[in-house]
Amino acid sequence: MMFASACWLSLHAGPPDSLSAGPPGVLGAAYDSYLYKARIAFKEHRFSGLVLIKQLPSDDAIHTVFMSEFGLTLLDVRYRDDAFTVVSGKDFLQDPRLLKVIFNDFRLLLQDFSLVSGLDSEGWEAGEKLKFRHLGGTFIYRFQEGFEVEEAVWRRGLFPHVRMRLERNEERRARSIRFRHRGLPLTVEMDLLKYKGL
Amino acid sequence: MKRIPFLIFVLFLAVVPMLAQPAGYVLVEDASELEEAFRRNAASVRSISSAFVQEKQLAYLDEVIESKGAFWYRNDNSLRWAYDSPFHYLIVIKEGRFFIKDQEEVKVFDVQSNPAFKLLNDLIISIAKGSVMGDERFELKVYEGARDYLLVMQPLDAQLKQFIQQSEVYLDKESLLALRVIIRESDTDFTQISFVNRKLNEPIEDAVFDVR
Q1: Domain A24-196 falls in which CATH fold?
Q2: Quick check: A46 and B105 CB within 8 A?
Q3: B-side interface with A, Cβ within 8 Å?
Q4: What is the ipTM metric for this complex?
């Protein structure tokens, strides 16, 4: 019985249920870091700062670090094993509701598609839309050839909760990223300052 | 054999205080004379203008983020602190108000009525002038090197402690002005601001402090 179970697992685990050669992340597969200038508008309040998105192979993670223009680190979030965790952060940014918004936004941007169970590997090649259910939500990515994502939506239920729009520069890198939220007067705008390749 | 780890521990404890003293610098036991010299010098500063290079070091991510800009200070507490690269961001302090310009948007804060901006205002101006000594919000140690003084400042103020673990200000021995400032948030996360092409006591037009 155990042997049969093991055989079944070896046949059914891995590539057929997951995407072994799926699209790279929205930011591409091979980069060291992206540095963005960020502007956040919440109701009548305006904030600005820098956002560093850094791949850290030694940690098998992607770090997103929020900083002030003066260089002060405000929040460092790690995406690893398909989960977001706070590495460090100032007290005023540790509100669980705020963190949930940040995690949802950056999941749209950083989602590792190889960790999405049951993703159809033909889907992203053939069409211009990739749609899948993951972690209780629906993700939709609209893209051009080469998985150049122009818009992504995360929703629970019928209406989009988070909408992300991207514009690309001549090198096809994400030059501007905009997040909008349904039912939340919050917009996040990020403009590329610096890209570092591998 | 069991004593070896204990011995290593004792040796480590003995080494730690030595490491605490920055290499190439000697602790100034009685800094009162220097403090007076700093105070006199700060009082004689009428204006400073300088370019600066800011390097944010995230050692654990093996990342350095460099930004550049320039600042102008005038002793009527006017200051213009402008980032030019890789982004544009401007702070102007004048007539008790704190202006922030980001793209085309300008925000204005009253320094006196806003404790956070009062703190930032005092800190920026005292660092720019090199008059950080005597600031009771910090525990201060002064070290002397061959060409400069090093002021190691540890915040006592609870609000400051949230943001700064330690600040280090390197002052030129001759001019007693800040050469560079290091703001440490943790052992692996700090920002260094180096001042270059500094001009002292040259006239600065009012227009420099316009928010444009």
Answers
A1: outer membrane lipoprotein receptor (LolB), chain A (2.50.20)
A2: yes
A3: 54, 56, 58, 61, 63, 65, 67, 83, 86-87, 89, 102-103, 105, 107, 162-163, 183, 185-186, 189, 191
A4: 0.82
